[in-house]
From TrEMBL:
Protein's name according to its UniProt entry: PAS domain S-box-containing protein/diguanylate cyclase (GGDEF) domain-containing protein
Residues represented out of the complete protein: 611 to 905 of 910
EAL domain span: 24-280
Extent of the signal sequence: none
Protein source organism: Geodermatophilus dictyosporus
Length: 295
């Protein structure tokens, strides 16, 4: 369609924009019903301690294999699901699936008895009325102790509606779940947020970790985040660790834990379980060498 530009001429829509709008519509259409059709699954990325490289938990990451569109990444479909009002039911499924899996692992692997599972919660989920109930149900149905569940929220999600978000976090803490601030440092006025929103874990964003070059000192923002976390008594976790020198520097700097391709990519469920089995078989061993399918 075209419309008048008000000067008697006709302004045509940019074909690129039209294509983008059509792609967005198609994405939304495919997203509807994707849950019922069983097109979602979770993959699990190990979280390791930097001091001895043992797996203490996993982050659940959502994957969507659309028969028509092929694999679509969460960076694309989560915002689309939010916009289409679908994130509530998808998020509820993620919570149930992640809690059930973690509870089963904790039962099956005695050495994994205090394993944690982290689940990402988007802005729309955080301020939706149903979240606290969804979590309570997921915990009750799976038998997972609340303390084993970590909810990852971003600063961006918190600042979108700070009052509402603060109330949600308080309600979630009352359930006994742990809270992590994801992508820390990428939002703005992080310090102010830490006073307003009480969390348990700071996750240093991958963009800062990736600036850690071989033979150089710790970038100020990474150093600062670790110190801040220690001062506040929080666990500090570095995302996106890809190189050994980064892991060593972070360990020396007393960052607690890490995730990243150096240790493991997000793994399919059986592969994640194999990591637990291997760790149980050789208790002293570090996390197995980098492996697993591409994310
Ligand atoms: P995030 O929570 O910050 O997740 C970290 C992302 O970094 C993941 O991408 C992970 O696969 C990737 N990653 C991990 N280690 C490395 C590394 O060493 N190098 C590099 N280059 N990348 C690494 P993914 O799985 O594509 O997820 C992207 C984002 O989508 C997540 O960012 C999260 O915000 C969102 N997301 C994923 N699953 C869910 C979900 O179940 N619900 C919601 N609401 N959001 C989700
Ligand atoms: Mg995350
Ligand atoms: Mg992150
Ligand atoms: Mg990130």
């Amino acid at each position: 369609a075209a419309r008048s530009d008000g000067r008697g001429g006709v302004r045509r829509y940019d074909p690129g924009m039209r294509a983008a709008a059509e792609a967005a519509r198609e994405l939304e259409q495919e997203l509807r019903g994707a849950l019922e059709r069983g097109e979602f699954r979770l993959v699990y990325q190990p979280v390791v301690t930097l001091a001895d490289r043992r797996v203490t938990g996993f982050e659940a990451l959502l994957r969507w294999a659309s028969p028509r569109l092929g694999p679509v990444g969460p960076d694309r479909f989560v915002p689309a699901a939010e916009a289409a009002g679908l994130i509530g039911e998808i998020g509820a499924w993620v919570l149930r699936e992640a809690c059930t899996t973690a509870a089963a692992w904790r039962r099956a692997h005695p050495r994994a008895g205090d394993l944690t599972i982290a689940v990402n919660v988007s802005a729309a989920q955080l301020t939706s009325a149903g979240l606290v109930d969804q979590i309570a149900v997921a915990l009750a149905e799976s038998g997972l102790p609340a303390g084993a569940l970590v909810l990852e929220v971003t600063e961006t999600a918190l600042v979108r509606d700070p009052e509402h978000a603060a109330a949600s976090l308080t309600a979630l803490r009352a359930l006994g779940v742990r809270l992590a601030l994801d992508d820390f440092g990428t939002g703005y006025s992080s310090l102010a947020h830490l006073r307003q929103f009480t969390v348990d874990v700071l996750k240093i964003d991958r963009s800062f970790v990736s600036t850690m070059a071989e033979g150089e000192v710790m970038p100020a923002i990474v150093r600062g985040t670790i110190d801040l976390g220690r001062t506040l008594g929080l666990e500090v976790l570095a995302e996106g660790v890809e190189h050994d020198h980064q892991a060593r520097l972070l360990a020396e700097g007393r960052c607690d834990s890490a995730q990243g391709y150096l240790f493991a990519r997000p793994l399919e469920r059986p592969d994640a379980e194999a990591v637990l089995l291997e760790q149980a078989a050789c208790p002293g061993a570090a996390v197995p060498s980098p492996r697993g399918p591409r994310p």
